Amino acid sequence: MAEVQKLYLFDKARGKGYSYLLMEKVEEEALKSGFKQLYLETHQNLPVAILLYKKLGYTLLPAPLPGTQHSAMNHFFIKEL
After folding, report:
1. How far is CA 39 from CA 15, 31, 71, in A?
2. How far is 32 from 75, CA to CA, in rounded Å?
């Protein structure tokens, strides 16, 4: 399992589909590297990010994976690759 740590775009790059392209590339490279799952954390104050991850097939977890929680995050997702 690999963890996606950050995905941020400059304001002028938003709304053009780049987030989808970047996440697809991350997933492709994770698979090439032998990972079978991706895990990530985000916050309720980032509804666009939550929507992105759901659209890409990430499953919302009820709690963080043991030993992975970053103190400021409160939404946890996983995806089988």
Report:
1. 24, 13, 16
2. 27
The 3-state DSSP class for residue 74 equals: coil
Q: Where are the beta strands (DSSP E) in 5-74?
A: 37-42, 59-61
Q: In what order do the strands lie in the sheet with 59-61?
A: 2-4, 37-42, 75-80, 59-61
Q: What is the pLDDT of residues 48-81, one digit of tens each?
A: 999 999 999 999 999 998 887 677 899 999 999 9
Q: Kindly compute the dihedral angle of the four CA atoms of residues 58, 63, 66, 70, in this order, to the nearest 10 degrees.
A: 80
Q: Which residue has the tokens 């992975």?
A: 68
